[in-house]
Amino acid sequence: MKHLSPIMLAGTGSDVGKSLIATGLCRIFRQDGYSPAPFKAQNMALNSYATPDGFEIGRAQAVQAEAAGIPCSTDMNPILLKPSGEHTSQVVLNGKPVGNRNAYEYFRKEGREELRTLVHEAFDRLASRFNPIVMEGAGSISEINLKDSDLVNMPMARYADADVILVADIDRGGVFASAYGSIMLQDEEDRQRIKGIIVNKFRGDMRLFESGRRLMEEVCGVPVLGVVPYAHDIHIEEEDSVALGLKATSMARDKVNIAVVLLRHISNFTDFNVLERNPDVNLFYTNNIDDIQEADIIIIPGSKSTLSDLCELRRNGLAQTILRARREGKTVIGICGGYQIMGMEICDPERIEGNIERLPGLGLLPTRTILESDKVTRQVQFRFLDSEAPCKGYEIHNGQTVREADSRPLNSIEDDGTDGCFADDRCFGSYIHGLLDNPTVIDFLLRPYLKEKSGKNFDYTAYKEEQYDLLAAHLRKHIDIDRLYSIMERK
What's this model's pTM, rounded to 2 decimal places? Predict the structure, then answer.
C-alpha cells in the first residue's frame, strides 16, 4: 500500500465530532486495505478503557482502535486527564496514574518538554508500525493563550508532519466565524498545514448549504471536503457524559425500566450500551427520586470520586430511595464505584479522593472497601455465578473490596480468584466494566421481569462491527474521500 501522511482531525471547539469522524476514517482506511491506528496525544475524559496489557487509555481511542481492527495500546493516548473536581484531574501517563494536578500546575510551561517528549515517542512508535496514523486534536485549535504549552493540536501536527482537517460544528451556530477564526488565528506555517474543512452535524435539506459551502471556501481559502449530517440511526460508543441526562426518563409500560443513577462523577457509562439497545428495556439516567422509585432495576454506575458521590446520594435523598426500592423487591446492582457504594463502608486512609477518611456505604452488600493509590487496570475473562459460558470485561479501579467470609462471590476470574459479591438474584455488585455486555449476565438480570425470553441473544460485538461499517458508509457518502487520499498522498 502507498504510504499516507498522518492526518489530524482538529476542531473549532469541543464536542464538534472529531472523535466520531476519526473513528469512521479508521474504518474506511481499514476497508481500503491500509493498516491505520488512532492517536490522541492528550485526552480528557472519565470514560476510559483497559488495554490488553493492563494499562489505561481514553475510551475514544479504544473505540477507534476497534474500528481499525487492532488492539488498543497506550501509544494511542499517552496522556489521559481524568477530572476529579472543578479544577483538578488525575494524570495518567503511558497508562499509569502519576498523581493529581490542578489546571494551573498542569498547563504551566515548566515540565512541558518532558511531556512533549513522551507524546512524540508514543507517536513515533505507532508511526513505525501503522499506516496511516489518524490523529485527533483536543478542543479548539485557536486557544492562543495555551499555544506555548499545547501538546495535542498544531504543535503535535507539526511534529508528525500531519495534514490537518478542521472539523466545524454547524449545529451550534456561527460556523463561518468559527472556521475562519480558527484558521486566521494560526501562524503562517500552521495555516498552510490546514488542508480542508469538514462541516459536521448538519440538520435539514443539504441543498440549503450549497452556497454556504462555496462561501466558506472563498472566505477561508481552504476546500470544504464534506458536509456531514447527523446520523441518528448509527450508534458508536460515546466518550463524554454530556448527553446522558437528556435520555428519556419516562416509564415504559411494556418494557423493563432500568434507571442508571446519574452520579456527579459518573464514569464508564458505556457499561450500559447493550442494555440500552435491548428491545425489552427502557434504560435512562436520572438523579430524580420519583424516577428511581418507579424503576424495576436500579444500577449504581462507576464513579471517579466515589466518596463524594456517596455523600451526594445521602444529601439528595437518593440513598434512602435506593434502600426503599431494595426492600420493595426491586433489583439493585453496582458496577465498580457503585459496587463499592453498595457495601458496608469505604475507607480512604491515604486521602486519595480528598479529606473524607471513612464513610458508611448503603449496606446492601457484606463488603468493605479500602481505597489505595495503586490502580488496578486489566482485561479479564470470567464466569458469572454458576454459568459455564465464558464472559469478558475489564477492571479500572482504585482500592480493594473484601467480602465477609460467608458471602458469595459474583464471578470467577479465569486463573485469578473471584470478583464481586452476590446477595441474591436482585442484589449484587462487581468491579468488572463490560459485565453487562455478556448475554449470560443480561439474561439473568432481566429474567425476573420478562414472562418469557424474547428473541435470541444480542451479539454486541457483531452489532458494533455493523455500526462501524455504517459510519464508514455515511462518511463516504458525505466526504470527498478521494480528495482526502490525494491530500494524504501529497499530490
Answer: 0.86
State how far the Cα of 269 lies from the Cα of 7, in Å rounded to an integer.
29
Task: Write out the H or E segment, with its range, that includes residue 374.
Answer: strand 367-384
Question: Which residue is it, cell 463499592?
Answer: 340
C-alpha distances out from residue 244 to 61, 226, 334, Å = 20, 28, 18
Tell me the sheet residues that pair with 225: none
Longest dimension (CA), the chain: 73
- List, in order, residues 6 or more apart from 97 with CB less than 8 Å away: 56, 90, 91, 375
- What is the Cα–Cα distance from 145 to 78, expressed in whole angstroms? 23
Dist. CA 343–CA 469, nearest whole Å: 42
Distance CA 79, CA 99 (A): 12
DSSP per-residue codes, 237-282: --S--TTGGGS--S--TTSEEEEEE--TTEE-GGGGHHHHH-TTEE
Residue 358 has a CB neighbour count (10 Å cut-off) of 11
Whether 26 is a known active-site residue: answer no
Structural domains of the chain ordered from first start: 7-235+466-488 (3.40.50.300), 244-458 (3.40.50.880)
Assess whether 474 carries a catalytic annotation: no
The per-residue pLDDT for range 222-259, each reduced to its tens digit, is: 999 999 999 888 989 876 655 555 555 567 888 999 99
**DSSP tag of 303:** E
Contact between 126 and 5 under an 8 Å Cβ cutoff? The reply is no
Distance between CA atoms of residues 391 and 491, nearest Å: 48
Measure the CA–CA gap between 196 and 5, rounded to whole angstroms: 14
Q: Report the alpha-carbon angle 107-112-118, nearest 5.
A: 125
Residue 167: its pLDDT value, please? Answer: 97
Q: 429: which 3 cell numbers? A: 455488585
Q: Which of 26, 72, 220, 336 is catalytic?
A: 336
pLDDT above 80: residue 488 = yes
Give the model's pLDDT for residue 57: 96
State how far Cα 315 lies from the chain centre.
Answer: 28
Round to the nearest angstrom and report the end-to-end CA distance of the chain: 16
Helix or strand holding residue 220 (H, E): helix 210-220
Would you tell me how many other CB atoms lie within 10 Å of the CB of residue 163? 21
Catalytic residue among 397, 433, 474, 478: 433
Q: Rounded CA gap, 185 and 447, in Å?
A: 58
How far is Cα 392 from Cα 438, in angstroms, rounded to an integer? 7
pLDDT of 213? 93
